[in-house]
Specification:
There is one protein chain. The protein is built from 10 helices and 15 strands. By secondary structure, it is an alpha/beta fold. Strands 5-6-3-4-8-7-11-12-13-14-15 form an 11-stranded mixed β-sheet, sandwiched between helices. Strands 1-2 form a two-stranded antiparallel ribbon. Strands 9-10 form a two-stranded antiparallel sheet.
């Protein structure tokens, strides 16, 4: 599969893989740009969820409480690229924002139908109860009163076939540190997106790439992101009730897997997006020969093996013409940068072979370095941890 830089044959990565590949085998081996199935290695078809398990996401680390709103955005000027008969492109967006503590009510992790579709689609022989996902404890609150002031906006894009909820921990942490976050579901590109009318739309392109391959998906996501910015910053009638919180002069984007790759066309085509982060995604959409106009870009990935580099990252690294960093988290895997590994562990699935980084530590480091990047690039706050290896984070390696 593209979007995954390299995937070992393990259960821990099933949540990040296309439906057709997951259905064919529980064991997977990948090159930086393709995945092949294997009939032998891999996990058991199901796991036993401990009785009474209640999963809680790691507590956000910033000084603010976190509010969450859900938006439905409809682009009347653009037919859906994957299902034109469905009419205009529609997106569901979770808005996270700094909030007054003690206001609002608990925000659910995801809807029951979206959770069921994700589990059944990603875990062959799934025996995980749907409510084990819907009851995941978050730290965000619905209808929470916003903090006064204006904050940078960070757009987040999930991996291919994955609902936006896989980046909930990262979104909550950024909001707690003083960002407005727009976490976007790219409709028909994941196991299930639930809309306000109760309908849950499933994936239309997970079994077969559209003409033009994954780079076309990246470009479509860039268009999605530009539309989201348009809607959030529209005058005099923005799509979000708290749009006044957004400082439109300070906008960044991060994404996981193909969502990270999509940051390249987003930065290349939208001058409003000033900085980008790719979390472990193959650069399906190549960095232009002339770079990204000097915009800062950071790549964070899992190790591919001694002396092995993803050629799409090597190519991108040479072309990036602004501030740049290439980090590797030792002992991590493709799911490390999301909520996925944490959920799988609590569902009874073991870590992939070669994974030595605990899921909680992976979330901690992802949050720390992504926040440091945006603090530096969007807030102008110096970040020494981005200057090179540190004793407190020995797992983090810097590409020369």
């Amino acid at each position: 599969m593209t979007g995954i830089r390299r995937t070992v044959a393990v259960a821990g990565l099933l949540l990040a893989l296309p439906l057709s590949i997951v259905a064919s085998s529980t064991a997977l081996a990948a090159t930086p740009t393709a995945v092949a199935s294997s009939p032998t290695a891999g996990p058991a078809a199901s796991a036993t969820v401990p009785t009474g398990v209640h999963i809680e996401l790691p507590r956000p680390t910033g000084p603010y409480a976190v509010g969450r709103d859900i938006l439905q955005l409809v682009d009347q000027d653009r037919p859906d690229p994957w299902v034109p008969s469905a009419g205009p492109r529609q997106l569901m967006v979770s808005m996270y924002y700094p909030a007054d503590p003690g206001t609002g009510g608990p925000a659910p992790y995801m809807t029951p139908e979206a959770a069921r579709l994700m589990l059944d689609g990603k875990l062959p022989g799934n025996t995980v109860p749907t409510d084990a996902v819907t009851s995941v404890g978050t730290w965000s609150r619905t209808d929470a009163r916003p903090e006064p002031g204006r904050f940078p906006l960070v757009l987040l894009s999930p991996g291919f076939t994955m609902p936006r909820t896989e980046l909930t921990s990262l979104a909550e942490d950024l909001a707690s540190r003083g960002y407005v976050v727009a976490l976007v579901d790219h409709t028909y590109e994941n196991t299930g997106t639930t809309f306000p009318d109760g309908q849950t739309l499933t994936c239309a392109i997970c079994d077969t790439w559209p003409p033009g391959g994954p780079a076309v998906i990246d470009a479509s996501r860039a268009t999605d992101m530009s539309f989201v910015i348009d809607q959030l910053t529209a005058h005099p009638h923005p799509a979000w009730r708290y749009s006044r919180m957004i400082d439109a002069r300070r906008i960044g984007m991060a994404g996981h897997s193909i969502g990270g790759s999509a940051a390249v066309p987003s930065l290349a085509t939208d001058d409003r997006i000033r900085a980008g982060v790719n979390l472990d995604g193959t650069m399906d959409y190549a960095v232009p020969t002339g770079g990204l106009g000097g915009k800062p870009f950071m790549m964070i990935g899992h190790p591919l093996g001694a002396g092995v580099e993803d050629p799409t990252w090597t190519d991108a690294w040479a072309k990036l013409n602004g501030w740049k960093r290439w980090l590797t988290f030792a002992g991590s895997n493709h799911g490390t940068f999301t909520d996925n590994q944490l959920l799988l562990n609590d569902f009874g699935y073991p870590n992939p072979p070669g994974t030595t980084m605990p899921a909680e530590r992976g979330i901690e480091l992802t949050r720390e370095y992504v926040a440091a990047f945006f603090d530096l690039q969007l807030k102008g706050i110096p970040q020494p941890i981005l200057d090179g290896p540190t004793a407190q984070n020995p797992e983090v390696g810097f590409h020369p």
